[in-house]
Amino acid sequence: MRPDTPAENVDHTAEAARLERTAGLYPEDAEALLLQAAAHLELAGDRPAATTLYDRLLSSQSGLENPYLVRALKASNLWEYGHEAEARAIIDGVRAASPRDPAPWVIVAESLEAHDELEAAQETFTEAARLLLTDVEEPPYSTHPLLFGRHRVRRMLGVAHDEWDTVADLLHSSPVSLDELHDPKRVWSLGSDNPAELAAEISRLRAELGTYREALSRPFPVAVLHWPADELRELVEAYPTLASEYPSHEEHLATIEGSLRELAASGTPNLGIVTGTVPSYEAFAASEMASPGEAELLPQYATTLAARGRAVEWPPQRGAGCWCGSGRGYEGCHGV
User: Fold this and answer.
1) What's the rounded Cα separation, in Å, for the pair 206 and 165?
2) Which DSSP helix (H) or strand (E) runs through 43?
3) Chain segment 124-137, per-residue pLDDT in tens
């Protein structure tokens, strides 16, 4: 989620300002847009301004979708410009909260790793793996960075492989093995005069670049549209032609779960759920110059929300709350 365009080719300060203006126009996407703006400010070297944006998000009255992600990014940013004590306190808080999203774990662990806190980084990666991957048959795509990061840190510490390191090796699709990519001696080959060592390092760098490109090109999820009960009631009252699409809220929820299970059974990867709101849907319809009462517009709306990063992964992580918003765990709700 951090832009990787070199600073010499982009005015990151101007791009951050543009994203802040856009967030004002689209408040439903403000969290994602302001996080991108903060990343641009970090790349521009204006870390205090980035911290201001993180604080703005954390003080938001509307609530955040990923508060621990914002905290983790803030901690990483603070440490980079001398606020180590505050960064450590935030990292400890994130770890104590045990979020079910792997992204905050990866960020705080990599922050510890970047400051040579290898033992603490390994402990953080391991905590996350234990929390999110215990008794999980197939690690979700979003957890792969956890396993790869844990493998890298443990390789640098020189400890023996364990079961999760083996899983990381199996998930790694590059022609160059993780052991070779994470070899601590690689840094010495960069200063070598031996053509064979330099050629091997070029091969490893190409493999890493291929992995990054694959991650960046991963398509947005195949997403199913979910309406909370109050939003669905308002939608059907405003546009009665959609009543045939949604006979009841209970049936709507059952249809979502059933559709996703059918897609999963057919081998469709990268599934997700997007949650709609009536104002957002009406704005989308207006942008398409169409009537919100047209049922054909609903899948286009779902696809647009997914493309804007609004989808949540399905099925949820083990122990996470159900996607329907009931407050119960998925395993005891729609995951039964």
Assistant:
1) 22
2) helix 30-43
3) 999 999 999 988 87
